[in-house]
Amino acid sequence: MERSDIIFESEEFRQMLLQASAMEEPPVKDGSLRQAWFINRCRGIVSEREQKLGRRMTFCVVTFGCQMNERDSEKLRGILQLSGFLPASSEDADFVLYNTCTVRENANVRLYGRLGALSTYRKKNPSMKIALCGCMMQEKDEIERIRSGYKYVSLVFGTHNLYRFPELLCRCLLSDTQIIDVVDRDDTIVEDLPLERTYAFKSGVNIMFGCNNFCTYCIVPYVRGRERSREPGDIIREVENLARDGVVEVMLLGQNVNSYGKGLDREVSFAALLQEVEKVDGIERIRFMTSHPKDLSDDLIEVMKGSGKICPHLHLPVQSGSSRLLKKMNRHYTKESYLDLVSRLRGAIPDLSLSTDLIVGFPGETEADFQETLDLVRRVEYDSAFTFLYSRRTGTPAAAMEDQVDEKTAHERFDRLLSLVQETGRRRSSRFEGSVQRVLVEDVNRQDSTLVTGRTPHNLVVHFPGDKEMIGTFADVLLTQAHGFYYTGREMNASG
Ligand code: SAH
Ligand code: SF4
Ligand code: F3S
To answer: What is the pTM of this model?
Structure first.
């Protein structure tokens, strides 16, 4: 991946760094100014160490999980860079930070594997600091495991105090003992933290945090806390700043964007927010995720239909096709109402691409329930689908349900579902063959440097001849051949 390493600090934060540099003590009030003070302090510590070492100090942030975590990691990297660390290309670094996920058991297994594998680097560099943060760190059992079995981890913090990272980093640099700072909840939304953007031309934008839905299988509401929406003004200001900085595509992020705005002093719907984002000059493409089917409004459908910027692609997780299981999952829709929603969406936006998430092996799933899922998948014809084996998460209602499905049956159903979604996806995704699509060029092709890779509005990947100068620009590309989930093509002459 072509890394841009852009530090994106708002003018507000730049001012705060200046203001904080004149203060002897950190401001008592928590917030960006206090964190700015600690960034200045870290910078001092890092530069002193560098003089002693006779070399620059480096960091590496590794992200597990979803786009929320990716976005959080951009903030963590921004803070580390402003604190004076240089980015390293591997975990052979002075400060290694894992931003963890715990949505399924295998996410946890992977983390411990990676931690163990750090031992060679630790031997080489005994003063290396290892830190853990993110969703998994909100679980008491995991904290105990780190405390007792992973003493070499220097710092642990959670999802609610991520904005306090500068302060924690500073403490960690000055201490030799393990620091664990995890809080159960924090409703503060701290604006204006700096971040390092992975791409120059596209960016995620958090519009809300947390989740109130408590789907019975899901751990996210427990580790991310209650749903909180950002003020629309703050969101628009961020999008405007991004546009000024050359960003052409934004992805609005939330666990359930369709319920955006609830609880704000002046409630604003997601559809209304989209209309505001649409007005920002320079932004050419708008995407969002995730949409919960139960909250998708007719207003949103209308706004998508009338928009010149919102991409015709919707991620609409269904989880199961069995109304009985959907009820047990606490999803608040049925197979019929979901299918009805899909037909309303397709009626309004005929070319819409749909993707979804599916869970196989939820407690009590019978062959008949599973057949309902297969039937739904056949009827909807998804462009793509993520299929997951149900994973039992301690503390969720589903973990305590009797009749857990045995592993063999779950795996066998998983394989059947996977081959169906792949077959449908391949067929659906090839429907643009022979057409010309506007492609945002994202990267040089990794296997063949004479090609570039980009995405169509429907989120399909296209490889075509080009060079790195084209990254971040749009091209009209003839999709000459469909290859399952991607295309090859060639750029059309602007005049032809
Ligand atoms: N907020 C989003 C999803 C976040 S988690 C939404 O509601 O759509 C992403 C996906 O992980 C979910 O859609 C679900 O399919 C899957 N998932 C969540 N918990 C799971 C579990 N315990 N076992 C298996 N898959 C799970
Ligand atoms: Fe989990 Fe459901 Fe919230 Fe999505 S909406 S994060 S699946 S509880
Ligand atoms: Fe994982 Fe947390 Fe996202 S549990 S899926 S990183 S919200």
So the answer is: 0.94
